[in-house]
Each structure stands twice: as C-alpha cells, then as structure tokens.
Structure to design on (84 residues):
C-alpha cells in the first residue's frame, strides 16, 4: 500500500507542476501578445495582428481550461489518496 501512496503522491506532484506550468504559459502569452499586437495593429491595413491576437486568445483559453481540468483531477486524486 505504501507503494501505491508513493505513486499517487508522485502523480499529484506532477499534475500540480503541469497545472502551474500551463498557468504560467497562459499568463506569459497574454502579456507578450497584448502590447506588441496592439502597437503593430494601429494604423495597419493588415489583419495579421488581429489574427495573431485571436490565435493567442484561443491558446490562452485552452491553457486556462487545462489548468481547471488539472485542478479537478488533483482534487479528485487527493481525495482518493486520503481514502488510502
């Protein structure tokens, strides 16, 4: 049983790290795209800046969704660990 608990603890740690990384990437992406795209897009006849912003927003939304899903998985696995 101790081996199972160690494995669950390792998975919990890995999931927590992954959730943190996804959150950091989402925040970094938002910060990196917000300023430059707005500046490039001013007075531009090209729709590329808007497309870049739109794609970045979509990726950020997916990353935030991954963080939420990972958080739920961590909670559920933590509850399972407590039952062990």
């Amino acid at each position: 049983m101790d081996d199972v608990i160690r494995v669950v603890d390792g998975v919990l740690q890995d999931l927590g790290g992954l959730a943190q990384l996804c959150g950091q990437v989402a925040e970094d992406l938002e910060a990196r795209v917000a300023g430059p795209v707005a500046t490039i897009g001013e007075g531009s006849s090209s729709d590329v800046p808007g497309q870049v912003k739109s794609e970045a927003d979509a990726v950020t939304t997916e990353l935030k969704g991954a963080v939420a899903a990972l958080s739920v998985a961590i909670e559920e696995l933590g509850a399972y660990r407590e039952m062990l």
Remarks:
- The two ends are 8 Å apart (CA to CA).
- Residues 2-83 form one domain.
- The chain has a mean pLDDT of 88.
